[in-house]
Specification:
The complex is a heterodimer. By secondary structure, chain A is mainly beta. Helices cover about 0% and strands about 50% of the residues of chain A. In chain A, the strands form two sheets. In chain A, strands 2, 4, 5, 6, 9, 10 and 11 form a seven-stranded mixed β-sheet that branches. Chain B is about 0% helix and about 55% strand. By secondary structure, chain B is mostly beta strands. In chain B, strands 2, 4, 5, 9, 10 and 11 form a six-stranded mixed β-sheet that branches. In chain B, strands 1-3-8-7-6 form a five-stranded antiparallel β-sheet, with no helix packed on it. The chains are: A mainly beta, B mainly beta. Chains A and B meet through β5 and β10 of A and β4 and β5 of B.
Amino acid sequence: GAVVSQHPSWVICKSGTSVKIECRSLDFQATTMFWYRQFPKQSLMLMATSNEGSKATYEQGVEKDKFLINHASLTLSTLTVTSAHPEDSSFYICSAPPEGQPQHFGDGTRLSIL
Amino acid sequence: GEDVEQSLFLSVREGDSSVINCTYTDSSSTYLYWYKQEPGAGLQLLTYIFSNMDMKQDQRLTVLLNKKDKHLSLRIADTQTGDSAIYFCAEMTYKYIFGTGTRLKVLA
């Protein structure tokens, strides 16, 4: 079945660092990928829609200069958390829909900023 | 509105049936989904139902949809300890809207 791979699964870094998270569709092409954020014991909140070859579409309240999204190929989208601070610590999940199928989700990236 | 509500917690004994409920607000939803999330992991698609259906069965899983009441349920038959997880319903309009999540705890 369709697989979405996320990397890394867990990252711990110091405040002020920029962190890049990758989302790959392993056996299908995805012109659109989605990035979500999940706080502990809460639901997923859509942050942005990543569009291959064009700018990402951000949800209201999400800072696009803080969360940089690049969708450079049909199988890879990246989310870069720039100058991360402790309040950016969260679980970040990406998803992509294979053609004609529901969203498939990555395993998530736990980001911890010290 | 975009609120999708679920009860927060459900506990059942192994072998019993579990029923997880979800209410949504957008009647234009085309598909409704159930996802399972285990600790520290992403979301696993369990099943989904098209909005013009009222029931779908897939092995131990039964989805019921009451479109008039905007109510969706997931029944897990013969619940096992491995079913312990958080379950999210989601509706699809122009984007996914996730429910608040129901934590299912299965007691041995």
